[in-house]
Every structure is written in structure tokens, then in C-alpha cells.
């Protein structure tokens, strides 16, 4: 089931139909989890940091029109709570897909995900509260909805068999298995 968070300070993202989690706002909350690592990578190869520099200090320099700058001889972007939020443009060299028209040109190569299970019903108001590894190819996503916790546990094996165990906020467990 796709999760959706309307609160951009908590998430601002959701999982798509192919289980591709993506953001529509700057995921600034991730900087508390990533420490001095980027919160994202741009398709032009440059890292995106939140309100801190790679060494953890608060950035004080004026950003360029791409919402980035050179710090200690390396270029990177910053995400912010004000426009342009993540990036104003790409600083690095990219190749545009000639079959797409401006202003929605696609950059190639583009990561592509193909769904292998039916889309679930969005859980409006849910917030992701934890994500953890449970072993090799095994993960658990915890969410809160209406003050109660629920879980999506999933794993896969080397033959492309995916097992999803959903435990809803009332404790009901549902297991689904799919072959990719």
C-alpha cells in the first residue's frame, strides 16, 4: 500500500505504483539520519545536502541559481525550505531524451522501475516512523496512522520471489508473494 505524508517536515513523499519511494518536497528531515552524508543524489551526479555542509557545519555562503555551491573544492546542492527547495537547475552535464519536450524533458539514462504487484490504496495521513534492515534482502517499514502503528515487512530471494507481510494498525497480518 502506498504511504503518503502531507507534512513536508516529516516526509513529503510517497511510494509510487512500482514501490519507488520518491519525494515532492525537500526531505530535510533525512539530514538527522544521514549525519554528514547527502540526503539525495541529483541525476547529474552531484550530491544534495540539507541545511548543513558535508562536514556538518551550517552553510552560510550564497547559493547559485542551481541552489548549490563549491565547498572545499567540491560542488554540491543544498535543499531548503524556500524556493527552489532542492535544485533550481542542473549544474552538471546531462543528456536529455530527444523524444520528450520541454519543459518536462527526461534525463537519460533514467532509473526505471516496473511494478510487479498490484498498486494498493493510498493511506492518507500515514507517517513513516521507522525503516530498518532485518537481514539480507529483508526490511521493515513502520508507519503510524491515527495514532496506531502498522508495518510493511518485505523480503526477496535470489530467484526474484518477493514476500510482503502487511500488519495493519489493528494487528491484522496479510501475506502476499510475487515473482519478479
Largest sheet: 5 strands, antiparallel
Taken from the alpha-carbon principal axes, the silhouette is globular
Order of helices and strands: EEEHEEEEEEEEEEEE
Distance between the termini: 18 Å
What's the mean pLDDT score? 84
Please tell me how large the radius of gyration is. 19 Å
What is the count of helical runs?
1
Structural class: mainly beta
The unreliable regions are 1-10
Relative helix content: under 10%
> Strand order within the widest sheet?
11-12-13-14-15
Could you name the key traits of this structure?
single chain, 2 domains, 180 residues, disordered N terminus, five-stranded antiparallel β-sheet, mainly beta, four-stranded mixed β-sheet, 38% strand
What does this structure look like?
A hairpin with a 2-residue loop joins strand 11 and strand 12 (138-145). The strands form 5 sheets. The protein has a 5-stranded antiparallel sheet with strand order 11-12-13-14-15, with no helix packed on it. It starts with a strand and ends with a strand. It is globular. It has 1 helix and 15 strands, in the order βββαββββββββββββ. The chain has one helix at 31-34; strands at residues 3-4, 13-15, 21-23, 40-41, 47-49, 68-71, 74-78, 95-96, 107-108, 123-124, 127-135, 138-145, 148-156, 161-167, 173-179. The longest helix is centred in the first third of the chain and has 4 residues, at 31-34. It is mainly beta. It folds into 2 domains: 21-95 and 105-112, no CATH class; 115-179, no CATH class.
Amino acid at each position: 500500500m502506498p504511504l503518503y505524508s502531507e507534512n513536508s517536515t516529516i516526509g513529503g513523499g510517497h511510494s509510487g505504483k512500482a514501490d519507488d519511494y520518491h519525494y515532492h518536497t525537500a526531505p530535510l528531515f533525512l539530514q538527522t539520519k544521514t549525519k554528514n552524508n547527502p540526503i539525495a543524489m541529483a541525476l547529474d551526479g552531484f550530491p544534495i545536502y540539507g541545511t548543513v555542509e558535508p562536514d556538518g557545519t551550517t552553510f552560510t555562503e550564497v547559493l547559485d541559481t542551481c541552489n548549490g555551491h563549491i565547498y572545499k573544492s567540491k560542488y554540491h546542492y543544498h535543499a531548503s525550505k524556500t524556493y527552489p527547495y532542492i535544485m533550481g537547475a542542473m549544474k552538471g552535464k546531462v543528456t536529455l531524451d530527444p523524444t520528450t519536450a520541454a519543459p518536462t524533458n527526461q534525463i537519460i539514462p533514467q532509473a526505471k522501475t516496473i511494478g510487479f504487484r498490484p498498486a494498493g490504496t493510498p493511506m492518507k495521513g500515514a507517517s513513516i516512523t521507522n525503516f530498518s534492515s532485518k537481514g539480507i534482502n529483508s526490511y521493515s517499514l513502520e508507519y503510524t496512522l491515527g495514532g496506531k502503528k502498522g508495518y510493511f515487512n518485505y523480503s526477496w530471494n535470489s530467484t526474484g520471489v518477493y514476500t510482503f507481510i502487511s500488519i495493519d494498525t489493528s494487528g491484522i497480518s496479510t501475506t502476499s508473494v510475487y515473482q519478479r
